[in-house]
Amino acid sequence: MPGTPAANLLTGLGIDEVLTRRMRSGRGTSSDALGSTLALSDPAGALPTQYTYEPFGSTTITGTASSNPFQYTGRENDGTGLYYYRARYYSPTLSRFVSEDPLECERRNGKDLYAYVSNNPVNLVDPSGLAESGPGSGGGRDVCDAYDKRCRDKLPYSPGRGGGGGGGGIATSYLCGAGDCCREFPEGPAENCTRKCLIDEYPSCENLDGTSHWQCTIRIHVRCYQRCGYKPWPWQVPLRCYKTGLGF
User: Fold this and answer.
1) Could you write out the DSSP letters of every residue in 118-159?
2) What contacts 24+ positions apart, CB below 8 Å, involve 236-242?
3) Please, are residues 37 and 17 in contact by the beta-carbon 8 Å criterion?
4) What is the tens place of the pLDDT at every residue in 7-23?
5) pLDDT tens profile 42-74
6) Closest among 55, 57, 191 to 131, alpha carbons compared
7) CB within 8 A of 247, min separation 6: which ones?
8) How far apart are CA 3 and CA 5, in angstroms?
9) Single pTM value for the model
10) Of residues 33, 28, 6, the one with CA closest to residue 17
11) C-beta separation of 78 from 96 below 8 A
12) Which residues pair with 91 in a beta bridge?
């Protein structure tokens, strides 16, 4: 009948977080921690269709055939052997994306622009095709520890203003305030990409002081915003970041 939905979704706050998918046939879904569909259930609670996955997403379906496209990490299997990850397509057979990262956040680090979640598919997902996320994510809040470590490494040798050794007081002040700012910074594909880009770029400014350090940090912020497509509004930036002079 025209206008009748094929399925009803109850979603959570996370990207691709489907709590339940109820089809007209009465079937529901169950998922694992990565969001991959494990089984379809019928009204009686039986599991007529089940899915198993290899680490990089090669999928085996057992039981009754289904039109359900949401399989590995909750993304759509388009029926050609590829999964749709919004910005680009992913091939479980190749264990990699079929096109380059359009943001090119990793090019300067010499990383593979086709790689899927830094070759860690057991712990990470990349729902946008732009930035991995999840436990151990390369762009989530866990990367903020890098600032804390650099701060600790410099403070014991810091005769300068603000405890700044090596790169001086201003450089160390940036490092020692950046960790808290980084953790309060929002989550999201562009935000996670920006967060990681800034941490990777900062060493180019680390041994500068005064105006040179300030100008260098401005340059890396602009560069990372452009690469990652991040367009911050003032109310999205935590107050702690302004106090640190980071200007996220």
Assistant:
1) GG-TTT-B-TTSS--BSTT-SSSGGGGHHHHHHHHHHGGG--
2) 236/186, 237/185, 238/181, 238/184, 238/185, 240/177, 240/180, 240/181, 240/184, 241/181, 241/184, 241/185
3) no
4) 787 877 667 777 777 77
5) 888 899 999 999 999 999 999 998 888 899 999
6) 191
7) 218, 221, 237, 241
8) 6
9) 0.58
10) 33
11) no
12) 96
Which two three-digit tokens encode residue 204?
Answer: 């180019």
What DSSP designation does 175 have? Answer: H
Between CA 147 and CA 165 the distance in angstroms is: 15
The CA distance from 173 to 213, in Å, is 11
Report the SS3 class of residue 39: strand
The answer to whether the CB of 95 falls within 8 A of the CB of 116 is yes
Are the C-beta atoms of 74 and 127 separated by less than 8 Å?
yes
Count the neighbouring beta carbons within 10 Å of the beta carbon of residue 83.
24
